[in-house]
Amino acid sequence: MEKIKLYTDVLKVKEAPKWGYVFPLVEYLVKENKKLLEYYEIVTKVQDADFLALPLSVEYLLQNGQQKYYEDFLALAKKEHKKLLVFTAGDIGKTIHDADVITIRLGGFKSKLPENTFIMPPFIEDPLEKFQLEFRLLPYEEKPSIGFVGHSAKGIRKWTKEGIVFLKGNIKRLLGKEATDFQLFYPSSIKRFHYLMELKSKSKLKTDFIFREKYRAGIQTEEDRKRTSLEFFRNIQQNPYTFCLRGAGNFSVRFYETLAMGRIPVFVDTDCQLPYSESIDWNKQAVIVDAGAFESIEEKIANFHKQLEGDRFQQIQSENRAIWEQYFTKEGYFSNFQQELKKQV
């Protein structure tokens, strides 16, 4: 297999205060991930490379007085007529409008993303292995059952708290202390509560919801973390469908957790770009509802569910688990990403 050759600054990786600031592909190659070394190699001469890879996340460099480092890396790529791979981390990310930059990020708004943008999943541990849960196929029942466990609340205090967090973030961006995109106010926990209450009122659906007033139930101890995490994944395991809505960033971690459990996401599309849409027909693997047409969700779920009568219902559960294993583990994602890069060499 012909490998993709990357030129990067391996020594720069040591500067990062933690691995979260390192471009994950660079991180895994530095750590000598055997699977990914079958698809990529790091070269020491820029002339030998297919692409250059910025070693640390772009917003980390910009926030820490290293804009020139980024600009020099990009200038080198342009000089050698090669494209620069840039990773932007965290919930929000940084949008870069430059034809010579390929951006890898967790989310963002589809209508505003440059063409050379690839959505990367948050890499989670396999919940079946971590919590010793059995992968089992649920039988088809006439009325679809939707689960949810998580941060969802209402009230003036919650509006105020989320508003303050939003303002602080944009003030930091205005002052140059944070180099991510400016955001519009989106109180995700309040939106989530509203949507879930709408679902509970629908007669064609069964719901299995656990509302938490604080993120991760306000856990204090490692024991609490294990207990609430197990409760979270057992809820997904027990229901064929799980409600998924964006959080602080415009993407849903729960979407990928649902796939990992072999279940079907009910995904509210808030102008999201889902990864590998050219390879995966997401409308066949998930119930996708436009946020502007949420009033149609009952019929959308009911119609989707009715089409799964018979063997197809359990088949889609197996497919979604296989999709997570093939595309959304770190090895799976970047081995498939190699094929995307080959199209641009």
Automatic annotation (TrEMBL):
Q: Name one Pfam family in it.
A: Exostosin_GT47
Can you give the residue ranges of the Exostosin GT47 domain? Answer: 227-295
Q: Provide the protein name.
A: Exostosin GT47 domain-containing protein
Higher taxonomy:
Bacteria, Pseudomonadati, Bacteroidota, Flavobacteriia, Flavobacteriales
